[in-house]
Design goal:
single chain; two-stranded antiparallel ribbon; binds zinc ion; mainly alpha; 2 strands; 59% helix
Length: 341
C-alpha cells in the first residue's frame, strides 16, 4: 500500500500526483463558483459512492499489480529502441553530426518532438482501439464507466496498457535514436520534476478534470488545438464515443475529421449502451469479458465505427509509402553532404 502511495501520489509522472490533484481541485472550485447548479452532484454521496466509482477504485489496485507483475517485464525499453534506430541510421546513411544548432535549441526541439510524436501516436492507437473489432472489446473497459473520476483514467484493460506501453517505447525510442544520430548523445529534455515540461504544464492545468463531472470547456478556437476536459467527456458519451480521440492536442482530431466541439454536444449520457454494459460491471467482468468470444454478439456500436476501417487502412498504408519515399530522398540528398564522413 505504501509503495502504491509513492508510485502514484508522489510521482510527478503519474496522472494522480498530489500537485495535479490539488490544482484540479482549485480549478474545480473556481468553476463551481460560477456554475452553482452543478455543485450538487460533486458534493453528493451519489457521485462518490456510485457503483461505477467504487469499481474504478477496486480495479485501480488489481490492474496495478497485473501491470507490475505481468506487463512491465514483457515490455522492451526506450533505450533498446533508441540504440537500434541509431544503428539503422548509421548503417544506411553513414556518420553524421549536425553542429548548426545550440545546445538549448536541440533540447527544445527534442522536448517538442517527444511531446508531438507521442501525442500523435496516442491518437492513432486510440482510434485503432475504436475501429478494430477485436481491440474495441478491450477498450470498452475504459468506456464502461458511467461516472467519471480521476481513477477512471486507470480503468484500462491490461492488453490496452500493454499496447500503450509498446507505443511509448517505440515512439520515444525512435525519436531519441534519430536525435542521437543527428546531434550526438549529449542532450536532455526540458523538464520539471523529471517530467516533460509540456506534460507538466497540461497536467497542472487540470488534465484530471477530463475524468470528472466538471464540464470545463475552452474557447471555441482553442478546442481545435487543445482537448478540453469537456471534449474528453464527450468522447465518453454513448452518442459521441467515436469523436475526440486526442490526448493533449485536438489538432489530430481536427486534421482527421473526428473533432467534436463542446458547444456541439449538449446533454450527454456517459458509458456504453445497456446491452454492451452487461458484462463490464465487476472487476472480473472488466478483466475477462473481452476475452470471451460469443458467436452472436451485440456489435451495434462497432458497426457505427466501420466507416473508419477504410480510414485506418488507407492512412497507415499511405503513411508507410510516404515514409519510404521520404527516406529514399533523404538518403540521396545527404549522400556526400556536409557533416558526413
Ligand atoms: Zn476511447
Ligand atoms: Zn477517458
Amino acid at each position: 500500500m505504501d509503495n502504491l502511495f509513492y508510485e502514484y501520489i508522489l510521482n510527478p509522472s503519474k496522472r494522480i500526483y498530489w500537485l495535479y490533484i490539488l490544482s484540479s481541485i482549485l480549478i474545480s472550485l473556481v468553476y463551481l463558483y460560477f456554475h452553482k447548479n452543478e455543485r450538487k452532484l460533486i458534493f453528493s454521496k451519489k457521485y462518490w459512492l456510485h457503483k461505477s466509482t467504487r469499481l474504478d477504485f477496486y480495479y485501480f489496485f488489481i490492474s496495478h499489480f497485473i501491470k507490475v507483475l505481468i506487463l512491465l517485464p514483457m515490455l522492451f525499453g526506450v533505450k533498446e529502441v533508441a540504440i537500434f534506430t541509431y544503428r539503422i541510421l548509421l548503417k544506411n546513411f553513414g556518420f553524421y553530426l549536425n553542429v548548426d544548432f545550440t545546445y538549448g535549441q536541440i533540447i527544445l526541439f527534442y522536448t517538442l518532438a517527444i511531446f508531438i510524436f507521442s501525442d500523435l501516436s496516442r491518437y492513432f492507437l486510440h482510434r485503432l482501439l475504436h475501429t478494430n473489432k477485436f481491440l474495441w472489446r478491450f477498450h470498452k473497459v475504459h468506456h464502461s464507466a458511467k461516472i467519471l473520476n480521476p481513477l477512471t483514467f486507470y480503468r484500462v484493460h491490461p492488453l490496452e496498457n500493454f499496447l500503450f506501453g509498446l507505443r511509448y517505447s517505440l515512439v520515444i525510442g525512435i525519436v531519441t535514436g534519430v536525435f542521437i544520430y543527428f546531434f550526438g548523445a549529449k542532450f536532455n529534455i526540458y523538464s520539471i520534476f523529471g517530467v516533460n515540461i509540456f506534460l507538466f504544464i497540461f497536467s497542472i492545468l487540470g488534465t484530471n478534470l477530463r475524468h470528472s463531472p466538471i464540464k470545463l470547456s475552452y474557447l471555441k478556437y482553442l478546442e481545435y488545438i487543445f482537448i478540453s476536459p469537456r471534449q474528453h467527456q464527450i468522447h465518453h458519451s454513448v452518442k459521441f464515443y467515436n469523436k475526440n480521440f486526442g490526448g493533449y492536442l485536438a489538432i489530430w482530431d481536427t486534421l482527421f475529421g473526428s473533432l467534436k466541439l463542446s458547444s456541439e454536444a449538449k446533454i450527454i449520457k456517459l458509458g456504453l449502451r445497456k446491452k454492451e454494459m452487461k458484462n463490464y460491471e465487476t472487476v472480473g467482468g472488466l478483466l475477462f469479458s473481452p476475452l470471451i468470444f460469443k458467436r452472436k454478439e451485440n456489435n451495434e456500436k462497432y458497426k457505427e465505427c466501420k466507416d473508419y476501417k477504410k480510414f485506418n487502412f488507407m492512412y497507415f498504408r499511405n503513411i508507410f509509402v510516404k515514409c519510404l519515399h521520404l527516406c529514399k530522398s533523404i538518403k540521396n540528398r545527404f549522400k556526400g553532404a556536409k557533416g558526413f564522413r
